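hey can u check if this looks right to u? its 273 residues, i copy pasted from the old doc so theres a chance i mangled smth
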Amino acid sequence: MPESEFEPEQRSEQRIDTSVPHSARIWNYWLGGKDNYPVDEAAGDAYTAVFPGIVTIARSSRAFLGRSIRHLAGEAGIRQFLDVGTGLPTVDNTHEVAQSVAPDARIVYVDHDPLVLTHARALLTSTPEGATDYVDAELYDTGRILEAAARTLDLTRPTALILSGILGHVADHAVACGIVRDLMASLPSGSYLSLNEGSRGTDPDYEQAQDAYNETGAVPYFLRPVDQIEAYFEGLELVAPGVVSVPLWRPEPSASGVTAPPIGQHGGVGRKP
């Protein structure tokens, strides 16, 4: 049977290579998820043997995502979310967090990973009042992303663009900035950007571990200086406290009263004037 005759899930299953580790599956493993293979667990364990702090970074990034979405759905009143490069479902997915605050929230997930596609049904759950959808598109194809998202979202109304740990896969920073600019340009005033990425300048051990990982032949992820992460918010009004190490962005009160130390993951939330 020609490939074009397969259903999308069948085609995606054919494209999954379980013999080599994949960054999305390794990240899922660090988050405590189950959608990974022994090769991913082995790669994840090898990385943590060199830099155990990567698990804290992964989970702190996820916690930042949750806090930023709760802010957007709550205080900011946003009811539409466009999550690009969503990765594999684990816990506290964008639609779960947003709809726990605003049951009528509408969410579109975008990814081009074949394993994510096979788990689309897990993402396509929603409250009766809201909606979720999944778009199979490349990060670089911003026109397709926006056209497909418009089937579920009204892009004339304020929308939150979510970019969580995806732009580090774009080697050229200028190209990464262009992706953000193109997506935000099509969203109206009052829209928001929630973004967090791996950073340089905070943890030399993390930088050394990631640089070594990039040299293994796996899909690379490029840590960037904080000023380059700040550049993604050009033209936007930063929500306090600005672009900071993610544990420091509006942290939940801790029982001990001790603030978590900075880590090599920076992010922020910005509003389009």
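The radius of gyration is 18 Å.
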